Description:
Largest sheet: 2 strands, antiparallel
Shape: globular
Order of helices and strands: EHHHHHHEH
Number of helices: 7
Strand content: under 5%
Number of domains: 1
Radius of gyration: 20 Å
Helix content: 55-70%
Number of strands: 2
CATH class: Mainly Alpha
Distance between the termini: 46 Å
Structural class: mainly alpha
CATH topology: Fumarate Reductase Cytochrome B subunit
Amino acid sequence: MNARARPADVNPAREKMLIWGLPVRLFHWSLTVLMVFAYVTGKLGGLWLDWHMTSGLAILALLMFRVLLGVGGSRSARFVSFVRGPRAVIAYVQSLRRGPLPRYPGHNPAGGWMVVLLLAVGLVQALTGLFSHDSISTAGPLTERVSEATIIFMTALHHYTVYVLLACVSLHLLAIAFYLWFKRENLVSTMLTGRVPRISGQDLDPGRGGTLFALVALVLSAAFVCGLVYLA
């Protein structure tokens, strides 16, 4: 069925439809906890840097897992279901002022690109951490494979990218607050339950077929990261 949005009325009975399966929801909240933990341990420094590095490796595995879901996961998790062109994004942003606001069964056009941006910046942050060194005792697992100049560059990029990531997260949180206060849509609840009020004529049920793929994707992502650590 066509997943593109058009203005539509929500079912009067407020029937709920599932759009985010368990793999996507677990990814979202696991990544949230790990990012907070990584930021705090990075700021604490010292012996906490070992935990910072461990959480960074877990974040890398999760991000790779989400990319795989975006390619071959359930319907709602795939990038093709929510990444739209510039015209759709501009039209949606304009509708925020003009109204009525189109309803989407998954990410809206602006939110879809925010997901891509967060994944991209997160991957840069996690990958540069593999080659970073704190100049004292803690080094990424791949620092011995590259030159000193590369380590210096990657360490600097790792430190500066965190500010870009914080800016993206702040924008994401502001969007959540905007939808809650002005549009009366609780996006946090949606990501907890995976369900939203049903939209007439639209369906983006993630289906059951994506569960097995998600398990395989998670195992492959974890195996790849473990390989970086133990085989580097």
